[in-house]
Amino acid sequence: MIIAGFGFNSGATRQSFQEAVDLATAFLEVHAQEGIEALATAEDKLGYNALQHLSGEMGLPLWAIRLGDIAQAPVGKSEHSPDRYGNRRLAEAAALIGAGPGGSLIGDRMVSTDGTVTIALASGPGRNV
C-alpha cells in the first residue's frame, strides 16, 4: 500500500496540492508498480478544504495522524515544522506512520512550485488511523 503524506502551510491552494500529487504520481510511474492508495496528514490539518476536496476527487481516504505519533516519528527535523509536531518533517512522518509497521519511505519528499505543499510517499501494509 502506498500512502501520500502531506505537510503544508495556510497559503496552500487546491492547485498546490494537485501539483504535489502530480509530482508523486510521475515518480511512482517510474519507480513503483502501485499508485497512491491513501492520503495522510496531521490531525490538526485534516479540515483544510483544499486537501478534503483533493481526497474526494481522487476517491481516496484521508487519514488523520495523531500529533503525538508525528512527534515520535523516525524522520528528520525541520526548522519550519512547529513544536507540536516535534519539529518533524510532517509529510514524511504522516506517510511513514500511515504506511504502518515495517513501512518505508519511497524516494525524497517533493515540493509544490510555490513551496506551500510537501508530499512524501511511503510503502507498507497500511495502518488503521
TrEMBL record:
| Record-given protein name | CobE/GbiG C-terminal domain-containing protein
Q: Which SUPFAM superfamilies match?
A: CobE/GbiG C-terminal domain-like (SSF159664)
Q: Which Pfam families match?
A: CbiG_C (PF01890)
Give GO terms for biological process.
cobalamin biosynthetic process
As recorded in UniProt, coiled-coil segments are: none
Give the lineage: Bacteria, Pseudomonadati, Pseudomonadota, Alphaproteobacteria, Rhodobacterales
Task: Give start and end of each CobE/GbiG C-terminal domain.
Answer: 2-122
Q: Which InterPro entries match?
A: CobE/GbiG_C, CobE/GbiG_C_sf
What top-level branch of life does the organism fall under? Bacteria
